[in-house]
C-alpha cells in the first residue's frame, strides 16, 4: 500500500510539473508572438521644414528606392508641414497653390506605385507649427480642431494616405487644450471614417502619458531634434527610463534621424544605434539625393535594422550606470532566451572604461559577442565584459550565452507608472528622479496618494517559482507607508518604516510567493505618500508549493 501510494504521489508531482511546463511554454509562446515593428521611412521636416513641393517629394521617394533603402526596410514617405493652402467656405481643405498646384493625390499615387506608403501631417489645434515657428500663413486655420471627421475622410479615403503625424503647437501653445481628450477625439474620428489600421504618431514633444498607446503606434518623448551632438545626447537621456511604456507594437519616438546632416561618423553611429536598440521609429530626415555614402551605409546596416525591427518589439533598458557611462540591454529573437542585445554607451566628453559583470546582463557561461556596427565577431567572454570607449561613442553588441540567468534585482526605473507623464502639469507628479546613492543612480518619487498611483514590474521572472525573500530599498521619510502586492494577491501593508532625511537609503524584507514564469509586483500607498523607491532584490528561500 505504501509503495502504491508513493508511486501515485510521484506520478501526481510529475503530472503537475508537466502542466506547469506546458503553461510556461504557452506563456512564452504568447510573449514571443511577433508585433508590428517601428515604422521606417523618410520625412520632409528636418531638411526642408515648410519649403516643400510635389516635385521634391517625388524625387525623395525615387531616391529612397534607387539608394536601396526600400530594400533595407524603409517604406514610408511622410509629407510634413507645408502642404497646406486654405479652407474654403465649406471648410474643405485645399493644398498650397504653388507648392502643390495639382494637389497631393498624384504624389500619393506616385509613392504607392513605388511600393512605398505615404504619410501626412496635421495639428490637433487650429494652426500648425509652421504657422507659428516658420511664419507660414497658410498653416493658420488648417488644423484638425473642429474638422476631425472631414479631414480624416480627405486624408485617408480621398487622398489615400496610410499614416499621420499629429502635432500639438496650435492645441497647446495657443489654446491650452487637454492632450488626452484632444488626441482621443481625433483617434475616434479616424477610426470611424477610415479605420483603425491608420497609423498615428502623437507629436507632443514629451512623454504625454500612458493613454498615448490608445491613440498611436508611437509618441514623441522630446523636443525637436537638431543635427548637433547635444540634441542627440539629450533625447537619448529622455528615453533612457521609458522602456516600460514601449512594447506590443507601440513605441517611444525619439524623433526623425539626423544622419547625413553634419554629425561626426562616431556620433552618427551613436544616433542610429541607440535609436535602433531603443526601438524608436526610424524616419530619415536628410536629402536622399545628396546623402554621404558612409551615412547611407549606416542607415542600411542590416544587423542594426534587425535590432530595431526585432519581432519582440522591446526597448532596451539601463542595467548599469557608473559615472557618465551606461549599459543597456534587451531581449531579441526570444524572450528569456540566451541571446540579448547590449549597448555600452559613453555620452561624455572623455574616454570611458567599462567593466560589466555578465550576471548584470543575466548571461552565464561562455558568451559569444558580435559587434553590430562593424558586423564582425569579437572574442568570447566569461564572467565580465571589459571595454574602453572614446567620447561620444557606443558599442552595440549581440551576445549569445550558454545559459540565461534568473535576475535578482529590479530597479525602480524599470517600473511602469500608470500616472506618469513628462508634461510637468502637476507639482508632485510621480517621476523617475536622479539619486546618487541609488543602485542605478535613479529612484521613483511621489508614488501613492491614490490607489492608481503605483509602480508595477510585470515581468518579474522565476524559473521554478517558490518562496522568495524580497528586499525593498527605499528612501526613509516621515509619515510614509508602503503597500506591496504580488500577482494581485493580498496586499502586504508596511506601516512602520524607518525615518530619515530623504537623502539616504534603508531596506526592508518580506516573504513573497512567486509562480514559475512571469510575475507582477506592485508598490504604492492608497491613501498617503509611499517612500521613494530605489529597487528591490529577490532571493529564493523555498521550494514551489
Structure report:
25% of the residues lie in helices and 30% in strands. It is an alpha/beta fold and 545 residues long. The strands form 7 sheets. It has an 8-stranded parallel beta sheet with strand order 9-8-7-6-5-2-1-10. A 6-stranded antiparallel beta sheet has the order 11-12-13-18-15-16. Helix 7 (148-158) crosses helix 9 (179-193), helix 10 runs parallel beside helix 11 and helix 11 (265-277) packs parallel to helix 12. The two termini are 25 Å apart. Mean pLDDT is 93; it is low at 1-30.
Q: Largest beta sheet, briefly?
A: 8 strands, parallel
Determine Rg (CA atoms, Å): 25 Å
Tally of individual helices:
13
Tally of extended strands?
28
Question: In percent terms, what proportion of residues is strand?
Answer: 25-35%
Strand order of the largest sheet: 9-8-7-6-5-2-1-10
Share of helix among residues? 10-25%
Could you tell me how far the N terminus lies from the C terminus, measured between alpha carbons in angstroms? 25 Å
Note the overall shape.
globular
| Structural class by helix and strand composition | alpha/beta
The oligomeric status of these chains comes to: single chain
Low-confidence segments, ≥5 residues, pLDDT <50?
1-30
Can I get a quick summary?
The protein is of the alpha/beta class and 545 residues long.
Question: What are the defining features of this structure?
Answer:
13 helices, disordered N terminus
Topology:
Elements: H1 2-31, E1 40-43, H2 45-48, H3 54-66, H4 69-72, E2 76-78, E3 84-87, E4 93-95, H5 105-113, E5 117-123, H6 129-133, H7 148-158, E6 163-167, H8 169-174, H9 179-193, E7 199-202, E8 218-220, H10 229-239, E9 251-253, H11 265-277, E10 282-284, H12 293-299, H13 302-308, E11 317-322, E12 325-331, E13 339-346, E14 352-357, E15 363-371, E16 376-381, E17 384-389, E18 393-404, E19 409-411, E20 431-434, E21 442-445, E22 455-462, E23 466-475, E24 482-486, E25 492-494, E26 506-514, E27 517-524, E28 532-542
Helix pairs in contact: 7-9, 10-11, 11-12, 11-13
